């Protein structure tokens, strides 16, 4: 490695060289203790210290007739508005390439606190659990039954597409559904009703305002939940993330 402009091989570094070294050391030390996400972009930095899973709060009382939901695919954000004003917003995870989340104007057509997928899940036989895509290959044999992947707080806006609880990545990751992190899924579930309009597009005007302030999450480094957990009722009894 070549010497710096203020150093020569075989000689002690100059005063400027030592100052540079001290400055770098202090920066790295601060990164290590104060900003865990500086060295890596793991979950701690993205979750922050506030403990909030969403921007705003769930309003009390009946759901107003002028409530609408907007989704920005580019910003991976969900906005709930009353009369054009955002009252709640959260980060979401959208469909990956080949499984894009549909765009357009829809309405909530179904709500289920406990929903299981009919397309992705597990073949179960006693203590044996095998991941599967339902309908592909059929049952492994006698004694096996299908258990769909859990999708707590399901809010459907198009057959086979909906909002639900799940791990939220910084990159598009889903098969077209819109995942919400932890308790945000339950909050969103209480904010909408069958008939609530849902507008999904590449971007939304709110991206430049509230969209800059919503809590962000990166669950990509979280270990996958155990199969035993996913096939049990426990998957519906507590938030998956903090």
From TrEMBL:
GO terms for biological process: cell wall organization; peptidoglycan-protein cross-linking; regulation of cell shape. InterPro entries: LD-transpeptidase, LD_TPept_cat_dom, Transpep_catalytic_dom. GO terms for molecular function: peptidoglycan L,D-transpeptidase activity; transferase activity. Residues 215-224 have a biased composition (Basic and acidic residues). Keywords: Cell shape, Cell wall biogenesis/degradation, Peptidoglycan synthesis, Transferase. Residues 203-228 are annotated as: Disordered. It holds the Pfam family YkuD. PROSITE patterns: LD_TPASE (PS52029). Pathway: Cell wall biogenesis; peptidoglycan biosynthesis. The active site is at residues 164, 177. It comes from the Bacteria. PANTHER family: L,D-TRANSPEPTIDASE, L,D-TRANSPEPTIDASE YCIB-RELATED. Belongs to the YkuD family. This is L,D-TPase catalytic domain-containing protein. The lineage of its organism: Bacteria, Pseudomonadati, Verrucomicrobiota, Methylacidimicrobium.
